[in-house]
Amino acid sequence: QVQLVESGGGLVQTGGSLRLSCAASGRTFSSYAMGWFRQAPGKKREFVAAVTWTGGSTYYADSVQGRFTISRDNTKNTVYLQMNSLKPEDTAVYYCAESVLKYATGIGNDYNYWGQGTQVTVSS
């Protein structure tokens, strides 16, 4: 069984930065891709970023490309999301997820373990 616990969310002003962390338990962390998704009130969950099992390749939604950076440390069973130049439209609950695949995708159904989420609020 895999457990994912996100942290690092909070309230930040437009243009600010936050770094989210997702700590994973279980033996499978280093074997699969990891992703970040988000869901704003009244909206569907959307893909944000993903990283391959080695951390060698990353994949981003167009809306965050150039502003967000995903990374992972397999020695610490942790995946990160560095968020810069934040905008009010980035406000959402952010979830990390473990994929069933080694390569990164933006498809929610490719992920079988999910964290509880951490709230990110960007004020204008």
The separation of the N and C termini measures: 40 Å
What are the secondary-structure elements, in order, as H or E? EEEEEEEEEEE
Shape: globular
Radius of gyration using CA atoms only: 13 Å
Main β sheet profile: 7 strands, mixed
Count of β-strands? 11
Number of helices: 0
Output mean pLDDT.
96
Helix content: under 10%
How big a fraction of the residues is strand?
Answer: over 45%
Q: Give the class from helix and strand content and strand pairing.
A: mainly beta
Low-confidence stretches: none
Description:
There is one protein chain. The N and C termini lie far apart (40 Å). The chain is 0% helix and 50% strand. The strands form two sheets. Strands 2, 4, 5, 6, 9, 10 and 11 form a seven-stranded mixed beta sheet that branches. Strands 1-3-8-7 form a four-stranded antiparallel beta sheet, with no helix packed on it. β4 (34-39) and β5 form a beta hairpin. The protein is globular, with a radius of gyration of 13 Å. It has strands at residues 3-7, 10-13, 18-25, 34-39, 46-51, 58-60, 68-73, 78-83, 92-99, 111-114, 118-123. It has 124 residues and is an all-beta fold. The chain contains no helices and eleven strands.
